[in-house]
Specification:
CATH architecture: Orthogonal Bundle
Number of strands: 2
CATH class: Mainly Alpha
Structural class: mainly alpha
Radius of gyration: 16 Å
Shape: elongated
Distance between the termini: 22 Å
CATH superfamily: lambda repressor-like DNA-binding domains
Number of domains: 1
Number of helices: 5
Helix content: 40-55%
CATH topology: 434 Repressor (Amino-terminal Domain)
Strand content: 5-15%
Order of helices and strands: EHHHHHE
Length: 81
């Protein structure tokens, strides 16, 4: 996915643990792990707001868009649907 989550970078800058962050944001540590590892399918604006408030940062500090590398086409795949 071309969206990279950078929560771990911001936590490291502040020397904040995942547990403390989760508590202050109002998430479970497991849900923070889902976000950190890029497995989340969506993030609510209220959650993004809370994360930015706790970390005193901008949404762009937590999320970055990177261009996705084109995947290699396998033989026989072209045009098959």
């Amino acid at each position: 996915m071309p969206i990279v989550v950078r929560i771990d970078v911001e936590l490291a800058k502040r020397k904040m643990s995942v547990g403390e962050f989760a508590e202050r944001v109002g998430l479970t540590p497991a849900n923070v792990a889902v976000l950190k590892n890029g497995r989340a399918k969506a993030v609510r604006f209220t959650t993004l707001d809370a994360m930015c408030r706790v970390l005193e940062c901008q949404p762009g500090d937590l999320l970055e868009w990177v261009e996705e590398e084109p995947r290699a086409e396998t033989p026989g795949e072209h045009g098959a649907r």
